[in-house]
Design goal:
alpha/beta; Rossmann fold; 2 domains; 6-stranded parallel sheet
């Protein structure tokens, strides 16, 4: 398999848990070739997703499976990849994770990219029934619905949650990617927690947003969140990207994680919260509520702030009543991985049979 990218946690967890099955995995995924000349350079942008790579390495893989990594490619770039795959009778499988790219300010570029890939794919996969219905309506294609695997490793899935009396709500602004505009959402959560005893609103944001001269610096947001911190209304944490263990510890230390998204489709962050037993408050855009249980609020319009405030207050009432978030168990997640591995193996075999039949 040429999975793009093979090193992403989602892709890695499409294989059975090592040592849990009767034998070796039936699907072998090529390692991501480094993007640069050094073997230590990262996988981004993916060299596999080029016509040159496909032609040079066609003898090394049977099927190409695209997940992520085509953000910066033009539709013509993608058509060239498809042409190279067809030249060598290699099937293309596409998992539609995002119907709207959270890193793009407008939908046009991603729509054009998806139009090429969806049309060319021998098989489509997506994560929720709602996304599959949207794919059918937009492109007339049927997508197999397979759930998102676990994100957090076994040791963290099994780790007991910390105990404490405080009600901790987290809003992580990250690097203010295109689908975020968290100032109003911050104010809505502040309103929700006003007068709530032992409530803490933890706000995390990356250094590049808060530091003048850095790439994602937003002086308006920085000034606003600093003002809230000075008034004692938020517990502000400014830092670079978390390591994996730092991220899992952060999420498990929250009672509620608010997703401040204006648009989106699915979420690995949501899956990590499910692994760790943390409630998620998510907008009703996309299909977050179909992935795992969430508390929803309105994504758009005049109702956004009021419904976000209401959702956080519902989470607080559940906290007071001792109601914990639905949490994944390791046996269930391990079994899910086994099922996902078998389902993907079937997809690959079917796509390969169809492609060979078309060329025989």
């Amino acid at each position: 398999m040429a999975s793009i990218p093979s090193g992403h946690v989602y892709v890695r967890h499409l294989s059975p848990v090592p040592g849990a099955g009767p034998g070796p995995a039936a699907v072998s995924r090529l390692a991501d070739p480094p993007a640069g000349d050094s073997p230590d350079s990262p996988w981004w942008p993916p060299r596999m997703l080029t016509a040159e790579w496909v032609r040079a390495h066609a003898a090394e893989f049977d099927v190409m499976h695209v997940h992520f990594g085509f953000d910066a490619l033009s539709p013509q770039d993608l058509r060239d990849v498809v042409t190279a795959l067809r030249e060598h009778d290699k099937p293309l499988v596409l998992t539609v994770h995002d119907l709207r790219n959270p890193h793009h300010t407008t939908a046009d570029a991603h729509d054009a990219q998806l139009a090429v890939l969806v049309d060319a794919a021998d098989h489509l996969i997506t994560l929720t029934r709602g996304a599959a219905d949207t794919i059918a309506a937009r492109w007339g294609r049927t997508a197999t619905v397979l759930p998102h695997p676990h994100v957090v490793p076994q040791a963290w899935v099994e780790r007991p949650r910390p105990t404490g009396s405080a009600f901790v709500v987290g809003l992580h602004a990250k690097s203010l990617r295109a689908n975020m505009d968290p100032v109003a959402d911050l104010d809505a959560v502040v309103t929700a927690l006003t007068g709530v005893p032992d409530a803490v609103l933890r706000v995390d944001v990356h250094t590049d947003v808060m530091t003048p001269g850095m790439r994602h610096h937003d002086p308006g947001f920085a000034a606003h969140v600093h003002d809230l911190a000075r008034r004692g209304q938020v517990d502000l944490h400014v830092h670079d990207y978390f390591t994996d263990d730092e991220l899992w510890a952060y999420l498990q230390g929250l009672d509620v994680s608010v997703l401040p998204y204006r648009f989106g489709t699915h979420s690995g962050w949501l899956e990590a919260c499910h692994d760790l037993g943390t409630w998620v408050v998510a907008p009703d855009c996309g299909f977050y509520a179909e992935q795992r249980p969430v508390l929803s609020y309105s994504a758009d319009g005049a109702e956004r702030a009021a419904t976000l405030t209401a959702a956080v207050r519902v989470a607080h009432r559940r906290h007071q009543a001792g109601l914990t978030a639905p949490r994944a168990t390791w046996p269930a997640r391990a079994a899910e991985r086994h099922e996902l591995a078998a389902a993907h193996e079937h997809v690959y075999a079917t796509a390969l049979e169809r492609r060979l039949a078309c060329t025989s």
